[in-house]
Amino acid sequence: MKNIMFIAPPAAGKGTQAELVVEKYGLPHISTGDILREISKEDSEIGKYVYETLASGQLVKDEITYQLIEERLKRQDCKNGYILDGFPRNIDQAYEYDRILERLNYDIGNVILINIDKKTLEKRITGRRICENCKTIYNINDENNSPQVESVCDNCGGKLYQRSDDNLEAFQTRYNTYLEKTEPIIEHYRKMNVVKEVDGDDTVENIFKNIDRIINE
Ligand code: AMP
């Protein structure tokens, strides 16, 4: 199966959609944000640096992401396809990713761009809740996507938490970072003819239907 890369502004639903692709197709979901959130819990200098950078909404240093992404992509479970969520995030990372693909002899696959406006994202960001156990993502501002009990996961009964960067101030930084650093990489992939666009201002199910169609084209 083709590899899938998601590009989308913060809180556009790329994590949720990636999980649905995982459920249906069993591909590994490689989220640099998730990996970095694990590192941010470590009681070390790097753990502290990552924690503070994530909370501020800025990007962590490129070199940190290069190492962790190449190590992860080398693993056996990625040989038959994977979902990349949150990497590359700027043009240097995109160039490095081209080199990683060459070294590992992997194909770029589909680059799925989720389009959505800023007002919708602001509403979503304050309502996002994540299960600390099974990582299911909810939104208490969206009646179609809220848990039955506000702080409890419907799937596993785990406790729901709010990300430290899911507040309006950090969102503003993350959104500006997206416009300045991440959006320019779309052009890089357009030149390769691999960009597929979906409308992110729709229900989770409808967005997934469109993504699934792209996967099966
Ligand atoms: P995400 O879960 O994708 O929204 O990422 C959360 C945060 O992790 C971002 O705001 C960045 O601070 C950091 N991060 C994730 N991926 C990258 C990346 N490829 N390069 C630099 N920082 C990243």
Number of helical stretches of at least 4 residues: 9
Q: What is the class in the CATH system?
A: Alpha Beta
Helix and strand sequence: EHEHHHEHEHEEEHHEH
Do you know the CATH architecture? 3-Layer(aba) Sandwich
What's the number of extended β-strand segments? 8
Bound molecules: adenosine monophosphate
Shape: globular
CATH topology: Rossmann fold
Rg from C-alpha positions?
17 Å
Main sheet summary: 5 strands, parallel
Low-confidence stretches: none
Average of pLDDT? 95
Q: Any idea what the CATH superfamily is called? A: P-loop containing nucleotide triphosphate hydrolases
Strand fraction band? 5-15%
Q: Would you tell me the structural class of the helices and strands?
A: alpha/beta
Explain how this protein is built.
By secondary structure, this protein is an alpha/beta fold. The chain has one domain: Rossmann fold (3-Layer(aba) Sandwich). Helix content is 48%, strand content 14%. The chain has a 5-stranded parallel sheet with strand order 2-3-1-4-8, sandwiched between helices. It has a 3-stranded antiparallel sheet with strand order 6-5-7. Helix 1 packs across helix 9 and helix 4 (62-74) packs parallel to helix 5. The longest helix is centred in the C-terminal third of the chain and has 15 residues, at 168-182. It is globular, with a radius of gyration of 17 Å. It starts with a strand and ends with a helix. The model has no long low-confidence stretch (mean pLDDT 95). The chain binds adenosine monophosphate (AMP). Adenosine monophosphate (AMP) binds at residues 10, 32-33, 36, 53-54, 57-60, 65, 86-87, 89, 93, 165, 174.
